[in-house]
Amino acid sequence: MKEDEPISVIWLGQGGFIFESQGQRLVVDPFFSNIVEERQGLKRLMAPPVSIDDLKPDLIFITHDHLDHLDPIALPKIHKKYPKVSIVGPESVQLKVMSMDFDKSILVPVQKNMTYNFVDFKITVTPAYHSDPFSVGCIIGVGDKQIYLSADTILHKNLIAEIKSLIQKPLYAVLVCINGKLENMDWKEAVSLVEALKPKIAIPMHYGMFAENTADPLPFILACKEIGISSFELIPGAKTII
Predict the structure, then answer these.
(1) Are 16 and 178 in contact (CB under 8 A)?
(2) Higher pLDDT residue, 103 or 74?
(3) Do 99 and 87 contact (CB within 8 A), yes or no?
(4) Residue among 4, 123, 115 nearest 62 (CA)
(5) pLDDT of residue 5
(6) Helix (H) / strand (E) containing 13
(7) For 38-42, what is the mean pLDDT?
């Protein structure tokens, strides 16, 4: 794949995405249930924009063990529907999934700062600084494109240097949390990260899911444009070509 060839992205809300290239689908952090509202009282604002039947993953990557990323109600349903699809994630994810009634052969543990090849996707596992100490982000490589997905993280003093050390070529896109609560960057910190990494495209995420934990993406988008980086808001469930 050449750099000017498209990759499609579908935002599932919060930190969840479907990345598709040449018919292969990488699903990240699919969150479908009401478990956060039931257990933690955060009012869910967004219904799942894609059904489990329409996920059709070739690979599932879970960044950390929090209810809105590793959904303990939805993930078993996804595994039952797609029992041969690998579930990739750091130690906390593996421990949680091993406690469920899953086929253990499909579990793939990963470590920070390592790169793994999965069909058409090359995934470099990046550090993230969050309340799950095993939390990770990732750099998704497809052909000549690299897309950095921050997952949940604060703007730790080491984060930018660590991400830069793992980038093998100029970043095409950055998808970054902006909600500014519960150990995540706010939009100003997210702009600082984007400015340092200098991607072509910057896309905000991790907002709009819960009434008590959201943010307006417009200041982030405008600030990115002011520094010469294309930025826009994804529509949940809609396929966007980047």
Answers:
(1) no
(2) 74
(3) no
(4) 123
(5) 63
(6) strand 8-13
(7) 94
